[in-house]
Amino acid sequence: xxxxxxxxxxxxxxxxxxxxxxxxxxxxxxxxxxxxxxxxxxxxxxxxxxxxxxxxxxxxxxxxxxxxxxxxxxxxxxxxxxxxxxxxxxxxxxxxxxxxxxxxxxxxxxxxxxxxxxxxxxxxxxxxxxxxxxxxxxxxxxxxxxxxxxxxxxxxxxxxx
Length: 161
Description:
three-stranded mixed sheet
């Protein structure tokens, strides 16, 4: 994480909120495309749903831990957090998507392709959740949250009463 003291306000598309919504949209697209494929394979009894669940549950915490690899910058004067492109995550997802394509289309290994689909969805979901938690923590650490939001969070925890 980098702290920026420049008075220059970053463009909206670089703000953490815009980047999180973009990642959410990408996850939704992947989930629909891959979900249709998984549903087809589960309905035809080529893939068992609990294999997918186990793979997803294994990959979710790995994705959550990958939140620390996302380059983030804290802009103190404008009270914004921005994120940069994460090359490692991009390479991992690209490799898995190519692996799914090769396994499913060229070798006919449907089960392996479906396991890779579940791994991709677990990594993407875990990372997105982790980024949200990390951004919230940085906002809290640097005092970017309004006092009302902080009090509301404390009341939910039970520590503010």
